[in-house]
């Protein structure tokens, strides 16, 4: 048997990686726990130019763009003092971004993106559903993955793309501890933390909202809303609220009753001049109340096991960077793996695998950690009615926000990775520079904090920079 990658999880990162491996003829097997490869979980996903460029390299962009529909969102802002800023702009921020980078900002059902990625695969028989992983063992020169139904699968490396509660990551920790390695601690999971919660959902568009592409940000003391037009005359929406900080196994899990109680408290919140949160919730199609977990795990790999996406770097959804970061890490993994396979004649020793995985983490860690910090800053400044928040929302951003955000958005795309051995697309006459897999440091922490918040309140899209 030739070199094989076992991917655990049919997530954005897992299916993106499968598409990339297929492009280069690398054997893989993807194991998904759910019965369907693209279940409807009521979630939406923001895609930014850097992530869209990689999807374009894979041949997925045109379909994503078609499914997203009108993505030239017009902003509407409810300030902390209850006033509204909703003047229509002749050219939307998203349209300007497309003219500058070749790609707009796009929001789409997570289910839709998963389906596009799956449909793009030629060897769909390599994707197996109802395969919940329960054990991972590294044995000499290979790794064995066991699933709940009693099946076992063997490969050269295993990639955990199975989300923030990753079974692969837990097995990696177990393997490390049992081998006597000091790389992991028994309480490794306590690094995962949450100090806010969110009801996210998809709703039919209420009659009070115009049938145009909108992005609504509404700010109240202790909570905030982000609401976007969705294809099919629907809305994507988020209600963010503070909660007492919890870590690891102490992070709460919420019921539908918890969701209903929380939602009912805020039905009268006016998110636009003519629409309340109650109007949006009454038209709900899919909803869930979840804790917003955040953490960049200090080590993403051990022996022949590596984690990517939310399993390695989980950031606040207000950054719109979870899916983009997952796509980026998949690209960096493939770039690094191909270079090592060239040197090793299509064979990978355990030492080789460790070098590949360490390079992936070195390349991506700073950018992911920056995203984590930016999400925390944005959460703090957008959910508390403080003097600093009012200065940003009420005064600075209406005058300077668009220009700052545009500069940061372009910079973010230019410093992101691409799939190095695939052609770079040209969209709208633009082929952006890029970093490949080389980390770029620009020391822009202060500007980034400003840029994220500006994206929240002016254009409603949060860009993450490294």
Automatic annotation (TrEMBL):
Signal peptide: none annotated. It comes from Apiosordaria backusii. Belongs to the paxM FAD-dependent monooxygenase family. The keyword Oxidoreductase applies. Its cofactor is FAD. Residues 4-172, 285-341 form the FAD-binding domain. It comes from the Eukaryota. It holds the Pfam family FAD_binding_3. The keyword Transmembrane applies. The chain crosses the membrane at residues 446-465. One of its GO terms (molecular function) is FAD binding. This is FAD-binding domain-containing protein. SUPFAM superfamilies: FAD/NAD(P)-binding domain. Keywords: FAD, Flavoprotein, Membrane, Oxidoreductase, Transmembrane, Transmembrane helix. InterPro entries: FAD-bd, FAD/NAD-bd_sf, FAD_mOase_fung.
């Amino acid at each position: 048997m030739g070199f094989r990658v076992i991917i655990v999880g049919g997530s954005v990162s897992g299916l993106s990686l499968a598409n990339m491996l297929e492009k280069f003829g690398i054997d893989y097997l993807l194991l998904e726990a759910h019965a369907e490869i693209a279940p409807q979980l009521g979630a939406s996903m923001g895609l930014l130019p850097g992530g869209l460029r990689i999807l374009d390299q894979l041949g997925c962009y045109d379909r994503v763009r078609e499914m997203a529909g009108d993505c030239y969102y017009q902003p509407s802002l409810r300030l902390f003092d209850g006033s509204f800023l909703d003047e229509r702009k002749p050219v939307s921020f998203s349209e300007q971004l497309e003219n500058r980078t070749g790609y707009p900002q796009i929001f789409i059902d997570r289910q839709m993106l998963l389906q596009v990625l799956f449909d793009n695969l030629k060897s769909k028989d390599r994707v197996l559903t109802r395969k919940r992983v329960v054990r991972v063992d590294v044995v000499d020169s290979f790794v064995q993955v066991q699933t709940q139904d009693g099946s076992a699968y063997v490969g050269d490396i295993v990639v955990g793309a199975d989300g923030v509660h990753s079974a692969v990551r837990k097995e990696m920790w177990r393997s490390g501890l049992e081998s006597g390695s000091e790389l992991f601690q028994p309480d490794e999971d306590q690094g995962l933390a949450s100090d806010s919660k969110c009801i996210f959902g998809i709703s039919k568009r209420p009659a009070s909202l115009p049938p145009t592409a909108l992005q609504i940000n509404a700010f109240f003391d202790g909570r905030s809303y982000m609401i976007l037009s969705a294809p099919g005359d629907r809305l994507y929406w988020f209600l963010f609220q503070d909660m007492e900080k919890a870590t690891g196994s102490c992070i709460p899990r919420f019921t539908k009753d918890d969701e209903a109680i929380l939602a009912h408290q805020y039905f009268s919140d006016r998110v636009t001049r003519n629409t309340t949160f109650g109007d949006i919730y009454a038209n709900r199609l899919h909803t869930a109340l979840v804790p917003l977990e955040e953490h960049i795990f200090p080590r993403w790999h051990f022996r022949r096991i590596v984690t990517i996406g939310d399993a390695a770097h989980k950031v606040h959804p207000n950054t719109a960077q979870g899916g983009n970061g997952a796509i980026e890490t998949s690209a960096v993994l493939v770039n690094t793996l191909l270079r090592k396979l060239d040197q090793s004649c299509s064979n990978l020793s355990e030492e080789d695998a460790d070098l590949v995985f360490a390079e992936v983490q070195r390349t991506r860690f700073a950018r992911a950690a920056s995203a984590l910090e930016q999400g925390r800053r944005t959460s703090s400044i957008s959910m508390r009615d403080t003097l600093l928040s009012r200065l940003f929302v009420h005064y600075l951003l209406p005058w300077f926000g668009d220009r700052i955000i545009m500069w940061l958005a372009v910079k973010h795309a230019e410093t992101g990775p691409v799939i190095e051995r695939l052609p770079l697309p040209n969209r709208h006459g633009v082929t952006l520079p890029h970093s490949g897999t080389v980390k770029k440091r620009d020391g822009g922490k202060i500007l980034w904090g400003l840029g994220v918040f500006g994206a929240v309140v002016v254009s409603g899209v949060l860009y993450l920079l490294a």
